[in-house]
Design brief:
Elements (H helix, E strand, L loop, with lengths): L2 E5 L4 H9 L2 E6 L4 H12 L7 H11 L23 H11 L4 H8 L3 H15 L4 H10 L4
Parallel strand pairs: 1-2
């Protein structure tokens, strides 16, 4: 049986407990219909799908002692500025290259809703009011 969890909880214990109990995928309430459908199809095929925050949390939990978690520096990876995660830096770089939300979603295999959520977080962390300000920020920080 393939289990897909849809919940409001993204804390370490909730995620790890669900995975230990056999969950194949873990999505949050922010998931849209496309995310849920993708997770169900993936689970039926033996694959996993995680909310980006869950994915970041799992990477941090899997890091060996002394290594850094998401949004921090690690071997060969400098820490992103202003608390940005590496995924947010990746998306900001694509914005700076002129890609639209649907183009970014397609390139990263994420839903448009997930991209919008990341962009809203990018705007908040960088103090950007719009895409033009975010692009300016990206250029100042050599992103993209």
């Amino acid at each position: 049986m393939a289990i897909v969890v849809l919940t409001t909880y993204v804390d370490d214990n909730s995620v790890l407990d669900a995975l230990r109990a056999g969950a194949r995928s873990y999505l949050t309430k922010d998931a849209d219909r496309a995310d849920i459908a993708r997770a169900l199809h993936a689970a039926a095929g033996g694959l996993t799908v995680f909310d980006p925050r869950v994915h970041d949390m799992l990477l941090a939990a899997a890091a060996a002692p002394g290594q850094s978690g998401p949004g921090q520096s690690g071997p060969g990876r400098p820490a992103p500025p202003d608390g940005l995660t590496h995924r947010e830096v990746e998306i900001l770089g694509l914005i700076a290259r002129g890609l639209t939300n649907p183009e970014i979603a397609g390139r990263l295999y994420l839903s448009r809703h997930t991209i919008k959520t990341h962009i809203n977080r990018i705007f908040a962390k960088t103090g950007s009011r719009d895409r033009a300000a975010a692009i300016s920020y990206a250029h100042r920080h050599h992103i993209g």
